Amino acid sequence: MMNKIKSSMYPISFALGFIVLWELAVRLFHVPVYLLPAPSAVIEVMDGSLSSHMLVTLTEALAGFVLANILGMITAVIFVHSKSIEKGAFPLAIALKTTPLVALAPLLVVWMGTGYSSKVVASMLICFFPILVNSVKGLKAIEHEAWELFSTYKGTKAEIFWKLRLPTSLPYVFSALKISSSLAIVGAIVGEFVGANKGLGYVVLVSSYHMDTPIMFSAIIASALCGLLLFWGISWLEKKVVFWQRADDL
Amino acid sequence: MAKQEQASVSSMNEIAVTLKNCSLSFGDVPVLNNVSLDIYNNEFVSILGPSGCGKSTLLRLMLSLLQPNAGGEVKLAKDLSIGMVFQKPVLMPWLTAIQNIVLPLTIGEKRFSKKEARDKAEGALRLVGLQDFTNHFPHQLSGGMQQRIAIARALAADPAVLLMDEPFGALDEFTREKLNFELLRLWESPDTSLSTVVMVTHSIQESVIMSNRIVMMSPRPAGVDAIIPVPLPAHREVGMEELPEYHHTVNELRKRVKHL
């Protein structure tokens, strides 16, 4: 516990030092507020409306994240059990991954409107690939001897899946979850850029029209916080679930 | 000692496993060449040969994990139950010691209820002396302890035959020697149903101190080069490495290795 506090002292003191330097630089050199607002000016504009926008973005991102991961894992299970489906559909998944989400987002808004669903789908699209690739890899990562052990005792295909393949894949699944936890926020914000009347992406866009840089900064910081919250949540869960995997193994 | 005495009156010469004219190729690569071998009840047999010669393949034939080429035959005694120990412990890292031992008892034909499986697993843990580590996870145990759990897992299902694929190959010399004799005690013990052990090894010394007969394999494609009986007393003990019979057998095996 003491060590934990000690090790978190480093990033906290660095961040505080950086904020103090920033504040001093802005005041000393009289930087205009539309270019770079002082931290104090950013904090001043952080209010209840920012947190409600943050909640919107976080909800969209989380919904897309969860749906993408469920769908990605189911797809991975299908791929692992059928070589021909994997061969046929994997290139399509890669094509989907290489299509820039920014190019797709306007289409999503045309199809689904400016409400939640277009953002959830945007977030899903960007989260889908990491979980698919890692789950396929994880489900195939069983040791040959472990398979032989199950076969020796006449383990069924279902038993091999639930008691061997699935747990073996969990460390891989969690590293995908960590990657896509930050991508999920990107997806939601890109969706909001194209057409929305709430959410952090909307706030960034509108404040840029009005050259209201302090608001813009507050929204950027809030979006970073969303990503961090998701990442920390996943890391915490990972330690509980994949307890046998030491952090340095990953 | 009890097991050997029983053996001499009843089933010493009954065959547990027979391989007849077994050849096997992986694709175009021949691995086994016409292997014929009888394994009897109540014996400890070592299969000795150079690395990669197909010794492990032989065990996989006995387990029916692999099938011999046409013309070959693997015959097991009726209702023979077989346990397997691999070179690596192959423990599930997400299961505790006891759960790892319970696992094979509760899959496939599910011969045991949850309660029975748990009791058997506890008994097996006691046999290998790890009853104080019941709820430890593999990563909390040393390599030697992990391999003992793997042996307990194989013993829990009360197999008559135990197949071991270089079970101590990955361990340090001290642990290895300790486990060698632990295994011999388990094999002799009336508390286990164990009658026959077939152990693959590439250590000449290990094969001599442990086994009644040594099956010497030739390089790939592997065939049986010779079957050498070990003239040491039935009950093996630490220190028998000093006996002239031990040296004699080791030297004989060394000579054969040179001729391969």
Structure, described:
Chain A: Its main location: membrane. Chain A: It is a multi-pass membrane protein. Chain A: It is found in: Cell membrane. The complex is a heterodimer of chains A (about 250) and B (about 260). With about 250 residues, chain A is an all-alpha fold. Chain A has one domain (about 50-250): MetI-like (MetI-like fold). Chain A contains ten helices and no strands. Chain A has helices spanning about 1-30, 40-45, 50-80, 85-100, 100-110, 115-140, 145-150, 155-195, 200-210, 215-240. The longest helix of chain A is centred in the C-terminal third of the chain and has 38 residues, at about 155-195. With about 260 residues, chain B is α/β, with parallel strands linked by helices. Chain B contains eight helices and nine strands. Chain B has helices at about 1-10, 55-60, 95-100, 115-125, 145-155, 175-190, 205-210, 245-260; strands at about 15-25, 30-40, 45-50, 75, 80-85, 160-165, 195-200, 215, 225-230. In chain B, α4 (about 115-125) crosses α5 (about 145-155) and α7 crosses α8. Residues about 1-10 of chain B have low confidence and may be disordered. Chain B has two domains: about 1-80 and about 160-260, Rossmann fold, CATH 3.40.50; about 85-160, no CATH class. The longest helix of chain B has 16 residues, at about 175-190. Chain B has a six-stranded mixed sheet with strand order 5-6-7-3-8-9, sandwiched between helices. Chains A and B meet through α7 and α8 of A and loops of B.
